[in-house]
Amino acid sequence: MKTTYKAILFDLFGTLLSVSKAAKGQGQYTADILGLDRKAWNQACFGKHHDIVTRTDHLETVRRIAHSLDPSIPLHKVRQAAEARQLRFDTALLEIEPGILSILQNLKQQGFILGLISNASTGEVRAWPESPLAPLFTSVHFSCQQGVQKPDSEIYCMALAEMTISADAALFIGDGSSEEHMGAEACNIDSLLVTYFLDASDTQELNRRGKGSKGRIGHIRELLKMISPEI
To answer: What is the tens place of the pLDDT at every residue in 60-107?
Structure first.
């Protein structure tokens, strides 16, 4: 990788944190509360019934997704699931792994401008202002606030414009969800797939997620040697 990058753009969920890992023991799985298959629920969360490009009510968001899979789920179950899901996302944003934070702090101290581009609904990022991640980022673009989502090139361009950085001076890091690396590639932004929170044994899935990227790293700590000439 070149060492002339001035800014690093990060994805959030699956890249800098894992909701399932960070929130272990904090609330039941949403699908379990609703009596739904976990895989079906996770797929629905990336589908048309999950509005991530407007400001939404978290309870209504969970209801829409849940009833798209099973309209008979009673509202008290939906409410219980929404409360548990909110707790899990809040916990994940507030309890960031120290190793992740230290690398971001190191990169910032070296002079890199840090940006965030995340597909998320309103409730999923409710705790962002209190997250230890928040002070480290100069530019933050959540799809629910910007009205556009990855891989649409517009959200990448918004970040570049706010940081006053050209595409060739930026590097995007993400877990490859939502075809985000292809979106970065379309904007002429170099990108790397990070696999830390992914199943490294699923080669086919990793290849799918990595489409459009320039390579793969296991953890963001590898960035220190790849793009920091003095390290």
So the answer is: 999 999 999 999 999 999 999 999 999 999 999 999 999 999 999 999
- SS3 category, 214: coil
pTM of the model: 0.94
> 53: closest CA among 157, 148, 124?
148
Contact 189, 9 (CB under 8 A): yes
Q: Is residue 12 within 8 Å of 116, Cβ to Cβ?
A: yes
Residue 43 neighbours by CB under 8 Å, 6+ apart = none
For residue 68, the Cα-to-chain-centroid distance in whole angstroms is 24
Distance CA 143, CA 165 (A): 20
How far apart are alpha carbons 121 and 124 in whole angstroms?
Answer: 5
Q: How far apart are CA 38 and CA 29, in angstroms?
A: 8
Which 3-state string (H, E, C) describes 22-86?
A: HCCCCCCCHHHHHCCCHHHHHHHHCCCCCCCCCCCCHHHHHHHHHHHHCCCCCHHHHHHHHHHHH
| Residue 85 CA, distance from chain mean position | 16
Neighbours of 207 (CB within 10 A): 12
Residue 217 gets the label, from left (phi > 0), alpha (psi -120 to 50) or beta, of: beta
Of 196, 170, 200, 201, nearest in space to 183 by CA:
170
